[in-house]
Predict the structure.
Amino acid sequence: EAQVTQNPRYLITVTGKKLTVTCSQNMNHEYMSWYRQDPGLGLRQIYYSMNVEVTDKGDVPEGYKVSRKEKRNFPLILESPSPNQTSLYFCASSSWDADTQYFGPGTRLTVL
Amino acid sequence: DAKTTQPPSMDCAEGRAANLPCNHSTISGNEYVYWYRQIHSQGPQYIIHGLKNNETNEMASLIITEDRKSSTLILPHATLRDTAVYYCIVRVNQGGKLIFGQGTELSVKP
């Protein structure tokens, strides 16, 4: 089954404790992206990647890092999480022309 | 980058057509209009996209004005399961960056 998976689905952590949210897709997609969703703000793009070793900033990249060492994986790294990064996070992928993006189920992160 | 404007909420009677408008007055010639929807807190779902011609698929129709400054998503026979937040997105094809509007919360009522 074609899908985008994220792990963990739920995470509660404390300020400053480094964490990684994994994202993996099995559709051989070149394009992958991370979004965060906050009440009243809709979805905002954090980072995206057009292909392996190619990443670029979205609208809200501060406080986040990403890497794209393999085509199927696009982890989101929070080196020193803060409470304002409490949010619902979505990973997405699509083919090279980014026609239809497939979204993962979401990761609900709480930073205390 | 072009921005989009959508009404925050709309109601529609079950079985009737739902017409969701989107304004993108600063759209460039190479930017596409995409529509996604999100049910509760699930991952957004692709609906349809177009450049300048009207488009139709099994889910919906997309009507883009001739000057491309606005568009309308049409759900021809709305059901209760169509209750969701609908996002109008303008993007440069192959450009990677997506710009989400605030979305329209569509409530389909019996």
